[in-house]
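The pair is quoted verbatim below.
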Amino acid sequence: METLTFWQSLIIALWVAAIMSRAFLGGATLTLRFSPLMTGLVVGIVMGHVAEAMIITAAIQLIYMGVFSPGGTMPSEPSIAAAIAVPVAILGNLKPEAAIAVAVPVGLLGAYLYQFRFFINTFLGKITDRAVEKLDDGAITRSIVLYPVIASFILFVPLVFIALYFGAPVIADVIKALEGTVVFHILEVIGGGLAAIGIATTIYVIGRREYIVFFLLAFFMSVIFASLKITMVTYAILGALIAAIFVLVKSSNNRTASTNANDASGFDDDDDDF
């Protein structure tokens, strides 16, 4: 069976550490952290199985569609979950549903690891306080930007590397041995159920009555046009056009309503009588 090499494990671990340390700065890092898709792509490129990795990661993404991050904390870390679950699924030739069952506990452990990162940063905050007292701009910058990134790399790289290099093949072997058993079936059922929960949560959050029609339209379009094998890119472009039309019509209606209200009140937008 294929295994992860030293360098493959190290590259994936460095990628995860870069995301978790916010080394990319700004909102880009948060987007990468909150979605497993890019991590799945990186894993696929590193392992040479891009198509399989993206299919597995797409299934994992479903369970995080309804996950929120109040205060920057998440109940489960998507990037860490994908970094471990995708290699395990590829090595063990697992179905996406089984990969989801692996991703959930790994993501939960990753959340505790991220919280430990916050604990480490409290000590770095003391360095910042001393730098502020001395009015040392360089020391303040290093304590806020550089030192937390270095601390995160020291924390995440070794642990993720060990989990990948030593743990992923073992987990893949165990799950592969369970294939065809009741345990494996339970993993697949749980994985499929978690994906459904993620979708249901998202619908509940964005499920305003006036927008439900778009969800139903997308669902029935995917069913009706399934035989045409339309790609997701085409659906995305079509969805963007429908959204643009909706926004234009809504904006036009709002302007019309505003004009009518002004006419009814006897004032005009260009009046300067006040």
Summary: The mean pLDDT is 76.
